[in-house]
């Protein structure tokens, strides 16, 4: 079964600190993609970062990096130097070649950044 | 830069009423999706389409119908609304599977309440 698991319902971090949001996945497909989306309180879904199953290097996008450990089937999001504007819900999602390459989402992690 | 546009943004229905949610994209994407987001559940796939004139069921299709008569539009219908369909509905679109590293683009969502 294809599944995404996010075990942290909520995370708390202070400004300027780094934080890691956990994501594990399960799939029997060899080719797949892993995505992280941010959902602020306004509700829209904002794409953050992508990692392909064949990518040998961890993806990075500005302050976001993806710690991809294929053998462990984990794809953790690392946010460096947290900002107040990072407070939001974060979703890990997986795309395979099934269901029109639709995304399978985890239940999300709420990140709260304090000053 | 419209991207993916959903209408309406908010709607309140009574049990048994019908309505149609409209999704329009201007990125010439082949694939389109409807998801629903419920508290604590992440996003779940309702229906999807891999091209004009084609649709398929996702994880939670019961009570919904869809149509893709034009490439740029994907309609989600509720024939007889039920309180269990109270949710936030997201439409998304993407390129075909040959561009698997490209993210899905999401609309801003439709908040639907069934009384």
What's the quick description here?
The complex is a heterodimer of chains A (115) and B (115). By secondary structure, chain A is mostly beta strands.
Describe this structure in words.
- The complex is a heterodimer of chains A (115) and B (115).
- With 115 residues, chain A is mainly beta.
- Chain A is 0% helix and 51% strand.
- In chain A, strand 7 and strand 8 form a beta hairpin.
- In chain B, 0% of the residues lie in helices and 54% in strands.
- Chain B has strands at residues 4-7, 10-13, 19-25, 31-38, 42-51, 54-57, 64-67, 73-78, 87-94, 105-106, 110-114.
User: Biggest β-sheet of chain A: count, sense, barrel?
Assistant: 6 strands, mixed
End-to-end span of chain A in angstroms? 41 Å
Quaternary state reads heterodimer
Distance between the termini of chain B: 35 Å
Q: What form of chain A results from the Cα inertia axes?
A: globular
Order of helices and strands of chain A: EEEEEEEEEEEE
Compute the number of strand runs of chain B: 11
Total strands of chain A = 12
Into which percent range does the helicity of residues of chain B fall? under 10%
Strand content of chain A: over 45%
The portion of residues assigned to helices of chain A is: under 10%
């Amino acid at each position: 079964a294809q599944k995404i698991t996010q075990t942290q319902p909520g995370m708390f971090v202070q400004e300027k600190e780094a934080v890691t949001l956990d994501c594990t996945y399960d799939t029997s497909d060899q080719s797949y993609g892993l995505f992280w989306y941010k959902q602020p309180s306004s509700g829209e879904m904002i794409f953050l970062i992508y990692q392909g199953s064949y990518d040998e290097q961890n993806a990075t996008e500005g302050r976001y990096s993806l710690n991809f450990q294929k053998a462990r089937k984990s794809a953790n999001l690392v946010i460096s130097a947290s900002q107040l504007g990072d407070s939001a819900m974060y979703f890990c999602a997986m795309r395979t070649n099934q269901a029109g390459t639709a995304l399978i989402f985890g239940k999300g992690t709420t990140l709260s950044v304090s000053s | 830069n419209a991207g993916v546009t959903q209408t309406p943004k908010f709607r309140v229905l009574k049990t048994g009423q019908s309505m149609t949610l409209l999704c329009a994209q201007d990125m010439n994407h082949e694939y389109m999706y409807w998801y629903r987001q419920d508290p604590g559940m992440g996003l779940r796939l309702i229906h999807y389409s891999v091209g004009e004139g084609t649709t398929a069921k996702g994880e939670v299709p019961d009570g919904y119908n869809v149509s893709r008569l034009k490439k740029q539009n994907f309609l989600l219908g509720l024939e007889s609304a039920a309180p269990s369909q109270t949710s936030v509905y997201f439409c998304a679109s993407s390129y075909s599977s040959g561009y698997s590293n490209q993210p899905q683009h999401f609309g801003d969502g439709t908040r639907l309440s069934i009384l």
